[in-house]
Amino acid sequence: MIKPTVLVQLTDSHIGAVWSEGDPVVGLRAAIAAIRHLDVAPDAILFSGDLAETGAEAEYELVLESLQGIDVPVHVLPGNHDDRAAMRRCFGLPGEAEAPIQHTAEVGALRLVLVDSTRPGEDRGELDSSRLEWLDGQLAAAPDRPTLLAMHHPPIVTGSPVWEAIDLPGESRSALAEVVARHPQVLGIVAGHHHQMIVAELASRPVTVIPSTYGQARVSLGASKIVFGEAVSAIAVHVLTDGVLASYVQFVPYG
Predict the structure, then answer these.
(1) H/E element holding 137?
(2) Angle between helices 57-66 and 24-36 (to 10 degrees)
(3) CA quadruple 211, 212, 216, 222: dihedral sign
(4) Residue 250 bridge partners (DSSP)
(5) 131-167 pLDDT tens trace
């Protein structure tokens, strides 16, 4: 059997936040400690947005400090709380300051395509024509490579009006589905944003929404606002084996 490719995903650390019961730095460091204790070292780490609460450089510096000693590539995406220019400065990312942060990375046998779903200054997301054209071109360039798409806003219908008000609009989901449908090598899509685990699909591919390292949201189908429960951290471990992708979620107690 070919050696599995292991990609660990972190999301929504919200460094600098005070609106949940726990300390976001403690939650992030608990998640990173869990990565260190995995019995197989990951090939890379994906951080799928909302690293910071206000987008201040000091918040990103705390993320970098927490990641010290992790000797694998770390790929970052912005979320609706992040600042693209500050992320570029702190993580040494290429591109113009306010341009979408997106790129493609080879992670073992897996091709990871990171798509910026944010709309600066707003909580809701978007995938405009330029980003979708970029994605289509990236996928067309490697049709035989098993591929995972990553973004912050999950392209799903949740049944929760309070979440759908700040998710991707329907036209972005539909346009993304058309792109994904053209590329059979796409094994799935992973995202964050919702602070809970959700499994759905888009264009007959699985969409896996990963819990936060900060605080977890309760199911809010009829609620007028998002309600958060206990402070518990989480990581996801995506494993590609012989072309088949499996995703694990592990909850991690604070401290």
Answers:
(1) helix 129-140
(2) 30
(3) negative
(4) 235
(5) 999 999 999 999 999 999 999 999 999 999 999 999 9
Number of domains in the chain: 1
CA distance 115 to 113: 6
The DSSP code for 59 is: H
Q: Three-state SS for 163?
A: helix
- Tokens coding 230: 């206990």
The owner of tokens 């996801």 is 236
Domain of 31 in residue numbering reads as 5-252
Structure tokens at 29: 């460091």
Domain containing residue 150: CATH number: 3.60.21.10
Distance, C-alpha 126 to centroid of its chain: 15
CA angle, 161 then 165 then 166, to 5°: 130
The pair of three-digit structure tokens given for residue 18, joined into one six-digit string: 């005070």
List pLDDT tens digits, range 77-129.
Answer: 999 999 999 999 999 999 998 999 999 999 999 999 999 999 999 999 999 99
Task: Report pLDDT digits (tens) over 51-74.
Answer: 999 999 999 999 999 999 899 999
